[in-house]
Design brief:
Number of helices: 11
Bound molecules: 3'-phosphate-adenosine-5'-phosphate sulfate, magnesium ion
Protein name: 3'(2'),5'-bisphosphate nucleotidase
Organism: Actinidia chinensis var. chinensis
Shape: globular
CATH superfamily of the largest domain: Fructose-1,6-Bisphosphatase, subunit A, domain 1
Family: Belongs to the inositol monophosphatase superfamily.
Function: Converts adenosine 3'-phosphate 5'-phosphosulfate (PAPS) to adenosine 5'-phosphosulfate (APS) and 3'(2')-phosphoadenosine 5'-phosphate (PAP) to AMP.
Number of domains: 2
Strand order of the largest sheet: 3-4-5-6-7-8-9
Catalytic activity: adenosine 3',5'-bisphosphate + H2O = AMP + phosphate; 3'-phosphoadenylyl sulfate + H2O = adenosine 5'-phosphosulfate + phosphate
Order of helices and strands: HEEHEHHHEHEEHEEEEHEHEHEEH
Helix content: 25-40%
Number of strands: 14
Length: about 375
């Protein structure tokens, strides 16, 4: 692919992820400071919030506006089932007002805003039209409006992830990480620190959070990072960007590995054994969401491993943006058998061999995949 391709798509995607992050930051502040009934449980018991629906509606509206509602195919996580229930009228009103407030700010990010505030049915349409199944042919946007919703409701790490797939390959990846901390060690303790520190010790959340949007275009060998624009600061657009690169560490003893926080989402006893056999000495960095990919891409950690329970099928929106950014920043991402992830088979990463291994470089990656090969049969996964 030509490196100059997709400039308009990337530009709009980066701006809308900034816009979505600003929406999420406001909603998260509200959730954490007041208790709220705006968190619902989905059928699988995972949470969904006003922010998940509002970001999906906002991104969908902007993409349709710029690329034409007839042409745009979006594969995204949320649907409107809960929101359309008669007993969710109050929730829908909050989503609609959140979307309208957010879109009113779009010009600050150099994006169009609607001529009139959106009606309930328009917001529901914007969410429900993101029902594409993707596949091997054509262009498909892939959106996780809030990845790591559990982290989000706990006042911790989460990400907004937007990618573009063309003919089965990820060509653009954009990842917004509003709570990315100033110091990488704080990735591990973010939530605990928030809770343990009194408000007076934390003069403003911004002295704690760096917040960033990362992005990459396939085949460029470059991954970029922009600072997030916080709160009411006057936004100077275009924002500046700096190149990011993976860590150059290839000694396992010096390497840090990331994994999901929840034991239900990845087999932590298996990774513990793997870490021992490869010679990883540091404590695992357990972080919610695709911020784990972000940490690898910016060189704050060296390895990310996720081994979901047998039978769980990984979804493309949980990985597409992060995988491309890590690869373009110089890293290697495969399944546990060493094969590339296949984004061409629809909503799921079909054929994924056991789990996902993302590393800052080939030497560490080879060691991990080799060790999985050697230890799999004796493991209890
Ligand atoms: N059982 C199970 N196994 C593996 N993965 C699952 C499972 N259930 C859900 N999910 C998906 O995992 C996404 C969150 O992954 P994380 O790496 O952030 O996990 S964790 O919250 O840190 O434990 C999460 O993304 P969000 O729903 O966007 O938060 C889910 O898509
Ligand atoms: Mg997700
Ligand atoms: Mg999500
Ligand atoms: Mg979810």
């Amino acid at each position: 692919m030509e490196a100059d391709n997709y400039s308009k798509e990337l530009d709009v995607a980066v701006r809308v992820v900034h816009l979505a992050c600003s929406l999420c930051m406001k909603v998260q502040e509200g959730l954490v400071s007041k208790s709220s009934d705006h968190v619902k449980a989905k059928d699988d018991d995972s949470p969904v919030t006003v922010a998940d629906w509002s970001v999906q509606a906002t991104v969908s509206w902007i993409l349709s506006e710029y690329f034409g509602s007839q042409n745009v195919s979006i594969v995204a996580e949320e649907d409107v089932e809960t929101l359309s229930n008669a007993d969710s009228a109050g929730l829908l009103d909050v989503v609609v007002s959140t979307v309208n407030k957010c879109l009113a700010e779009a010009p600050k990010f150099g994006l169009k805003k609607p001529d009139n505030t959106l009606e309930n049915f328009q917001v529901l349409d914007a969410i429900s039209c993101c029902n594409s199944r993707g596949g091997p042919v054509g262009r498909h946007w892939v959106l996780d409006p809030v990845d790591g919703t559990l982290g989000f409701v706990r006042g911790d790490q989460y990400a907004v992830a937007l990618a573009l797939i063309e003919d089965g390959q990820v060509v653009i990846g954009v990842l917004g990480c509003p709570n990315y901390p100033m110091r990488k060690e704080w990735l591990n303790y973010h939530h605990q620190h928030y809770r343990a520190m009194s408000k007076s010790l934390l003069p403003s959340p911004h002295s704690w959070d760096e917040g960033c949007v990362m992005y990459a275009r396939r085949g460029t060998g470059e991954a970029w990072m922009q600072p997030l624009i916080h709160g009411d600061e006057k936004l100077e657009w275009p924002n500046f960007a700096k190149l990011i690169q993976v860590s150059s560490v290839d000694d396992p003893a010096q390497a840090t590995f990331c994994e999901p926080v929840e034991r239900a989402n990845s087999n932590q006893s298996f990774t513990e054994g793997l870490a021992q056999s490869v010679g990883l000495r540091k404590q695992p960095l357990r972080v919610y969401s695709m911020v784990k990919y972000a940490a690898i891409a910016r060189g704050d950690a060296e390895i990310y491993m996720k081994f979901a329970r047998a039978g769980y099928k990984e979804k493309i929106w949980d990985h597409a943006a992060g995988v491309l950014i890590v690869q373009e920043a110089g890293g290697v991402v495969t399944d546990a058998g060493g094969r590339p992830l296949d984004f061409s088979k629809g909503v799921y990463l079909e054929g994924l061999d056991r789990g996902i291994v993302a590393c800052c470089g080939a030497p560490l990656h080879d060691k991990i995949v080799g060790s999985i090969f050697a230890s799999w049969d004796s493991s209890n996964l």
